[in-house]
Design brief:
Number of helices: 19
Largest sheet: 7 strands, mixed
Radius of gyration: 33 Å
Low-confidence stretches: 1-20, 397-463, 500-562, 654-676, 685-701
Distance between the termini: 43 Å
Shape: globular
Strand order of the largest sheet: 1-6-7-10-11-13-12
Length: about 700
C-alpha cells in the first residue's frame, strides 16, 4: 500500500462539505483476464509462511483471508492480557503439541506462560515485516478477534507497508479483474460484540480493540456502507469479507443486504467442515430469514437505547453521518408483505473452517465463478476399534447373552461360576446352570460334599438350617431395595411428565423374550415385581423404567446402567453455568467472548416450580470442540453484572445415577458425565473424584 494514497478514516477527517469529500481509497488489480483461481482461507493464526505453500497447492493467483491473521509483534506481548495470551497459546499452530501441553498444564500460572512464550511461538508477522518472509502472491485480509489494534492503526496510517499484503477495512476497497469478472472486495474485521459497538478501546478512529482483542464498531459499519455506496458499479460482482458469520449474526446479514453483496465469506466458528449456503436453502421461508434479522436488530437496539444520549452528545457532524448509515443497516429488514428480497435466493455465503482444516477456491473463468470446497473433517476411525462392551446392543437380538456377574451382581451368599472350574466327573449329579434362571426353584437333589456342583451366575446352593436367619435377613434386604427402586422410578416418572410426551407403548404388554432361557417378566405397567417364594437366593431381575415403555433384553455389559431418559445424549463439549442474575442468550455468548469463543448453543433450564416457567439462571453452554470448552472453563468465578459466574463441566444425570450418592439409593446426586469418551479425548477426566474446591482450581487454571 502507498501511504500517500490512503486517506484517513472518515471519523478523523476535518469538517468538509459533502461535495469535497476525499476520494475513496480503491485499487484495481488485474490478475488474469482469461482464467484465475483465488484461494480463500480463514484463521491462519500467525503461520504466515504457510500462505505461500497453500497458494502453490491451489495454483492460486491471489488469497482472500478472513479471521485471525496474526497481527502481533514483540511488544504486543506487553499489551495482551493473561486470558487472551492463554487462548493464543492454546490455538497457535507454531507451538508443538508437547510444548503446548506443558504451557497449559493446570499448575502452570499465567506468569509462567508469559515468561516462557515469545513472539516466535505466536506469529511470524515480525519476519514478514522485516522482509525475511515474503508473500509470493497478493493477500487480501481483514483482521480477526485476536489481533493487536496498534499494528492495524500503523497500517491505516501508512507506517507499515508490506509488499503483496493488503488490509481490507471500512475505508479501503480493492477490485480484482479476473476471468471476465470484476470482483469488488469489501471487508469488515473484528468480532461482533453488541455491547462494545460504541467502545473504541485503544483504537483511535473507527476501529476498536485492546489487550490483544479487536471488535467491530457501529462507526466502522457506517463507514463501510459509505465506501460501498461511493464506489458502486453495477458491472461489478460484490464480495463481502467478514470475520463474524452472516449465518449466525443478523446484523452481518443486514449489512450484506445494504451493501448489495452477491457473495460473502466469513470465519469465526472454528468448525472442521466449511459450509456453503444461501438463506433460501437454510430457512423454511422468508419469515425465518426475517426472524434472524429482527433478533440482530433487537440485540443492537438494547445497547443503543442505553448509550444513545451519551453518544449523541460527543459525536461530530461526520461521525453522525456514519452513525446514521450504521442505523440504516440495523433497520434493514425485508417487508413480509412487499416484493421478495432478491438476496434471499441470490446471495451466496461461505463460512470457512480454520486454514489448518480446509479452504475454498474460487475458480473464475469466462465470467463464471465456481467453487471448490475442501475440509479435513472428523476422524471416525475410532469406531472400527470399538469393542462390544462399549457398543449399544440391538434390542431383542438373538445373539444377546445371559446376564453375567458384572451386569447383575449376585445377591449375598451366592457364588459366581468360574470359567476355568472343571465340571464334576459325575454327570447325573450336575444340575443345569440355566435352571435357577428359568424356574427359580430349588435344586431337587443336593450335591455330594465330595462333588460340588457348578453354580450359575447369581444362584446359590441350598442353605443349611443354621443359615435360615441369615437367609430371611437377605430376603428382607432385597425387598427393601426393590421398594426403594420403585419409589425412585415413580419420582422420576413424575418429573419427566412435564418435559416429555407420553409414550403410547408404556402400558403395552411386553413382548416375549427372544431367548427361551430368559425369565418371564411382568408387564411394564406393573408397579412391583412379584416376590419369589423360593428359599434360594435367586438372581435379581432388573425392573424396567416406566419411561422406556419396553424392557430391553439382558446383555453382556461393563456394569453400566442402561440410560433411562428419552433425552438425546449430552453434547460432549458442554459447560454448566450458574449465572448471578436473569440473563439472555446474547448475554451468555457475550460473557464467553462473543463470536470467537466457539459457543454453538445456549440452553436455559426451565423452572418447573414456577407457574410462569421462567428460566432459572442455570445454563448449559455447548462449544464446537474440546479446546474452546477448555477456554470457556477459564471464565469460572469471573464477574458478570453484580455477581460472579460459576462454570464447570456439565455431567449427565444417567452417569450420576450409576455412581450413586445422595438420596434415593443408586439414583443419587453423585458426580459423573455421559461424555466420558469425549472428556477422555480432551484430557479432562481423572481416576479419582475431585472435590468442589479442586474443580474450581482446575477451571481457574
Amino acid at each position: 500500500m502507498n501511504p500517500s494514497s490512503r486517506p484517513a478514516s472518515s471519523s478523523t477527517r476535518p469538517a468538509v462539505s459533502p461535495n469535497s469529500r476525499p476520494q475513496v481509497n480503491t485499487h484495481t488489480k488485474v490478475l488474469d483476464t482469461t482464467h484465475g483461481r483465488i484461494l480463500c482461507i480463514a484463521d491462519i493464526r500467525g503461520r504466515l509462511s504457510g500462505l505461500n505453500d497453500l497458494a502453490r497447492e491451489a495454483n492460486a493467483k491471489a488469497i482472500i483471508h478472513t479471521g485471525d491473521f496474526g497481527f502481533f509483534e514483540s511488544n504486543s506481548l506487553d499489551r495482551i492480557n493473561d486470558r487472551t495470551l492463554r487462548h493464543l497459546t492454546m490455538y497457535s499452530p507454531l507451538i508443538p503439541s508437547t510444548q503446548r501441553t506443558h504451557f497449559l498444564a493446570p499448575d502452570n500460572t499465567a506468569q509462567a506462560i508469559r515468561a516462557t512464550v515469545d513472539i516466535s511461538l505466536l506469529s511470524e508477522f515480525p519476519l514478514l515485516l522485516s522482509g525475511q518472509l515474503k508473500l509470493s502472491i497478493p493477500v487480501y485480509t481483514v483482521w480477526g478477534a485476536c489481533e493487536d489494534v496498534v499494528i492495524l492503526e500503523k497500517f491505516r496510517a501508512g507506517v507499515y507497508n508490506i509488499d503483496n499484503l493488503h488490509v481490507l477495512d471500512e475505508a479501503t476497497t480493492h477490485c480484482l479483474d479476473v476471468g471476465g469478472v470484476k470482483l469488488r472486495l469489501l471487508g469488515l474485521g473484528g468480532a461482533l460484540v453488541p455491547h462494545k459497538m460504541f467502545d473504541n478501546g485503544d483504537g483511535s478512529a473507527t476501529i476498536a480493540g485492546g489487550q490483544g482483542t479487536m471488535w467491530t464498531t457501529a462507526l466502522q459499519i457506517g463507514e463501510l456502507v459509505d465506501t460501498a455506496q461511493r464506489v458502486f458499479d453495477p458491472t461489478e460482482t460484490r464480495l463481502l469479507v467478514t470475520h463474524a458469520s452472516p449465518g449466525r449474526e443478523g446484523i452481518m446479514a443486514q449489512l450484506a443486504l445494504v451493501l448489495k453483496a452477491d457473495l460473502s465469506i466469513s470465519a469465526g466458528l472454528h468448525f472442521r467442515y466449511a459450509s456453503s449456503y444461501n438463506e433460501f436453502s437454510v430457512q423454511s421461508d422468508l419469515e425465518g430469514f426475517r426472524h434472524k434479522l429482527i433478533a440482530g436488530k433487537e440485540a443492537f437496539d438494547k445497547v443503543w437505547d442505553s448509550v444513545k444520549q451519551q453518544v449523541e452528545t460527543v459525536i461530530d457532524e461526520h461521525q453522525r453521518v456514519l452513525l446514521d448509515k450504521a442505523l440504516s443497516v440495523v433497520e434493514r429488514v425485508p417487508n413480509a408483505q412487499g416484493p421478495e428480497e432478491p438476496s434471499w435466493k441470490n446471495c451466496w455465503n461461505w463460512n470457512l473452517c480454520d486454514a489448518a482444516f480446509g479452504s475454498l477456491v474460487l475458480d473464475v473463468k469466462d465470467g463464471r465463478i465456481s467453487a471448490e470446497l475442501k475440509s479435513q473433517g472428523f476422524n471416525y476411525a475410532y469406531r472400527r476399534t470399538a469393542t462390544p462392551s462399549n457398543v449399544a446392543p440391538t434390542p431383542n437380538s438373538t445373539t444377546s447373552s445371559l446376564p453375567n456377574a458384572t451386569s447383575n451382581p449376585p445377591t449375598k451368599g451366592s457364588t459366581p461360576v468360574q470359567a476355568e472350574k472343571p465340571l464334576s466327573p459325575h454327570p447325573k449329579e450336575v444340575r443345569s446352570p440355566l435352571a435357577p434362571a428359568v424356574s427359580g426353584k430349588e435344586t431337587p437333589k443336593e450335591p455330594s460334599p465330595s462333588t460340588p456342583a457348578p453354580k450359575s451366575n447369581g444362584s446359590g446352593t441350598p442353605a443349611p438350617p443354621s443359615d435360615k436367619v441369615e437367609k430371611e435377613k437377605q430376603k428382607r434386604k432385597e425387598k427393601k431395595e426393590r421398594k426403594d427402586r420403585e419409589r425412585t422410578e415413580a419420582k422420576e416418572k413424575e418429573a419427566s411428565t412435564s418435559e416429555e410426551k407420553a409414550d403410547p407403548a408404556v402400558n403395552a404388554p411386553v413382548p416375549a423374550p427372544a431367548s427361551a432361557s430368559a425369565p418371564a417378566l411382568a408387564s411394564v405397567g406393573a408397579t412391583s415385581a412379584p416376590e419369589l417364594k423360593s428359599g434360594k437366593a435367586t438372581p435379581e431381575v432388573p425392573i424396567a423404567d416406566v419411561r422406556e415403555g419396553m424392557k430391553s433384553p439382558t446383555t453382556d455389559s461393563t456394569g453400566a446402567r442402561t440410560p433411562t431418559s428419552k433425552r438425546p445424549p449430552r453434547h460432549p463439549w458442554t459447560l454448566f453455568v450458574k449465572l448471578p442474575q436473569q440473563s439472555t442468550d446474547a448475554d451468555v455468548r457475550t460473557f464467553f467472548g462473543g463470536e470467537s469463543a466457539g459457543v454453538t448453543k445456549v440452553t436455559f433450564l426451565a423452572n418447573k416450580g414456577s407457574p410462569h416457567q421462567r428460566a432459572r439462571p442455570f445454563v448449559y453452554v455447548e462449544f464446537g470442540d474440546d479446546e474452546t470448552m477448555k477456554a470457556g472453563l477459564d471464565k469460572n468465578d469471573e464477574k458478570m453484572g453484580e455477581g460472579t459466574v460459576s462454570v464447570q463441566i456439565a455431567t449427565d444425570r444417567e452417569e450420576r445415577a450409576d455412581k450413586g450418592g445422595g438420596r434415593g439409593g443408586p439414583r443419587g446426586r453423585g458426580r459423573g458425565g455421559f461424555a466420558a469418551r469425549g472428556f477422555a479425548a480432551a484430557g479432562l477426566t481423572r481416576s479419582a473424584p475431585r472435590t468442589n474446591g479442586e474443580a474450581r482450581e482446575s477451571a481457574a487454571a
